[in-house]
Task: structure prediction
Amino acid sequence: MRTWVQRSSLALSCSVKRCENVITLEPRTLNIEPVSSGIEERIMRIGMGYDIHRLVAGRKLVLGGIVIPFEKGLWGHSDADVLVHAVIDALLGAAGLGDIGQHFPDTAPEFKDISSLKLLSKTYEMISSKGFTVQNIDITIFAEAPKLLRYKAAMQKNIAQTIEIEQDRVNVKAKTFEGLGMVGKGEGMAAQCVALLKIS
Ligand SMILES: [Zn+2]
Result:
C-alpha cells in the first residue's frame, strides 16, 4: 500500500514538457515523503495445528463437540476430539503459547475423558489474556467414514461459540484418504487447522 502511494506521488509530481514530437516527463522532486494510507495498522498472527488419533471399538466418536453415531470412536485421554485438538494447537501456535500437550497433558487426571471444547475454552482464555482475538479458523478433517457433511454446521457452531466469534469465521472441510494409509483403512482420523489471530 505504501509503495503504491509513493509511486502515485511521483507520477503526480511530474510535469509534461513537449519538445517537437518528443514528450519527456521530469519529476519536480525526488524528495518523496511516505504518505499514510489512513488504514489502521493491524498485527496478525497465523498458526497451524495437526492431530491424529486411532479409531477403536467401545468409544464414542466425538468431532467438533458432536457425538456422531459410528461403530468406533477415537482413542485418547480426553474425549479424543481430533478436530478440536487441531484447533487448539493452531490457536496456541499463533499466540506463541506452545502446544496442547504442554497445557493439557494426557497424564493429568483432571483431563481424563474431558470434553475437548472445555480445553478449547481454556485455550481461548489464554490467548484472550494476551490480547488476541480470532479472525478466522479453517479446519480439514480426514476420515474415511462416516460421512460428515451433515454435521459440519453443528461443529462450526460449537467452535465459534466457544471462542466467541461469528459462525461464518469457522470453516470445516472433510476429506477421505481415498483408501490409502492409516486413515484410508479406517484405523484412525486426522485433522489440520489454520488459525489467524489479531492483536486487539
Ligand atoms: Zn489429540
User: Anything to note?
Assistant: The helical segments are 2-12, 82-95, 100-103, 116-129, 152-162, 181-184. Residues 10 and 140 are 46 Å apart (CA to CA).
